[in-house]
Amino acid sequence: SAVISQKPSRDICQRGTSLTIQCQVDSQVTMMFWYRQQPGQSLTLIATANQGSEATYESGFVIDKFPISRPNLTFSTLTVSNMSPEDSSIYLCSVAGRRYGYTFGSGTRLTVV
Amino acid sequence: GIQVEQSPPDLILQEGANSTLRCNFSDSVNNLQWFHQNPWGQLINLFYIPSGTKQNGRLSATTVATERYSLLYISSSQTTDSGVYFCAVGEGQGGKLIFGQGTELSVKP
What we know:
The complex is a heterodimer of chains A (113) and B (109).
Chain A lengths: L3 E4 L2 E4 L5 E7 L5 E7 L5 E8 L5 E2 L10 E5 L2 E6 L8 E9 L3 E4 L3 E5 L1
Parallel strand pairs in A: 2-11
Antiparallel strand pairs in A: 1-3, 3-8, 4-5, 4-9, 5-6, 7-8, 9-10, 9-11
Chain B lengths: L3 E4 L2 E5 L4 E7 L5 E7 L5 E6 L3 E5 L2 E6 L4 E6 L8 E8 L6 E3 L3 E6 L1
Parallel strand pairs in B: 2-11
Antiparallel strand pairs in B: 1-3, 3-8, 4-5, 4-9, 6-7, 7-8, 9-10, 9-11
């Protein structure tokens, strides 16, 4: 299965600032997925990132708040913009594999103060 | 959309005990996975099991797709098994995963 390198692993940010999270995959993939996990909750899909086209956002998530970059088939970034304490969550990227299902990055634990 | 329900929500075990976690889903799926999230937040893929039975050491899983449920068995539990276990399903190849609410397992020494 694919290996995903995600960074940063954690960060503490001031409200009103932005943080960009990076995911690098060791193989080319068509789609990458970004999830959010709020404290004590399950994972919720933010958006699907396709190379060469605009990301597709799930209900409740907007591009201005969570802009996504997908410059090539092995890399994607998610930016959390104009952060507030409610954005404190774990953010994870994921890719789909044919034989072993989905693989997830190690996650970014974000705290907004 | 597809609904995913996991039970029980919480489980406390003594080390060495066995347990069964259940995942019910509301519609046909092409993908079903079990994940373990450790205390550091890392999500570990345990099984990719849209149907049938698989075993990996002390863990095994069975999915009965026609009846829309999956079971995760943990035998001879260890303290390192503690964490949250998620079931996630997908409708199509390469489409999004929908997660259940998880089962939080605590194994006491």
